[in-house]
Write a structure and sequence with these properties.
Largest sheet: 5 strands, mixed
Strand content: 15-25%
Number of strands: 5
Helix content: 25-40%
Radius of gyration: 17 Å
Low-confidence stretches: 1-5
Structural class: alpha+beta
Distance between the termini: 44 Å
Mean pLDDT: 83
Shape: globular
Number of helices: 8
């Protein structure tokens, strides 16, 4: 983002390239972040907004998910995934492999996406949750609705 008086906050892509900004940003892996801030404890909530690179983060953090060290992760799914060659199918495959539920935030609460269906590949902005099984009671997900229900009923 370009520094300013709150202008353009939340727009997403303000610079056309890294050279346009000229600011160094410290990065770290999710694994090192959890190690440094949580020690041997689990991370209850991780919020991710990295403009399409979410699946790359998940691939790098696969050991955390395999060890069930992440309770809940919130991330966005949208058209930025196209540039990274990623799809909703990749996210659901990851969740199934690591035994996490995929939930979608809606105005009525969280809706569970029980399985993949091609109709979910529309790249519209969605706030999604990866939830470990022991967090589902607290999140109180609703049954599948809308596109998730349609995909469930096709099988």
């Amino acid at each position: 983002f370009v520094a300013g008086n709150g202008r353009n906050s939340g727009v997403g892509h303000l610079a056309r390239s890294a050279e346009d900004i000229g600011t160094n940003i410290r990065t770290m892996t999710l694994e090192s972040l959890v190690r440094d801030f949580c020690g041997s404890s689990d991370a209850d909530l991780v919020k991710v907004d990295i403009e399409g690179a979410e699946m790359s983060l998940l691939a790098g953090a696969a050991s955390l998910f395999a060890a069930k060290r992440i309770g809940v992760m919130q991330l966005e799914y949208n058209s930025t995934w196209i540039g990274f060659g990623r799809r909703m199918h990749d996210l659901i495959d990851f969740a199934v492999k690591h035994e996490y539920a995929v939930l979608m935030a809606t105005p009525l609460g969280f809706t569970r996406l029980p399985r993949y269906g091609i109709g979910l590949e529309d790249f519209r902005l969605r706030n999604l949750i990866l939830a470990r099984a022991d967090y589902l009671d607290a999140l109180k997900p609703l049954g599948p609705a809308g596109r998730a229900r349609v995909e469930r009923d096709r099988l």
